[in-house]
Amino acid sequence: MAEPEYIPVSVGILPASWAKYRDELDKLVRKHPIIFGEQSDERDYDDIRGTYVTGRHVDAWGCVWHNVREGCEAIVKEHPVPTRADVHKLKAPL
Question: Model-level pTM?
Answer without folding.
Answer: 0.76
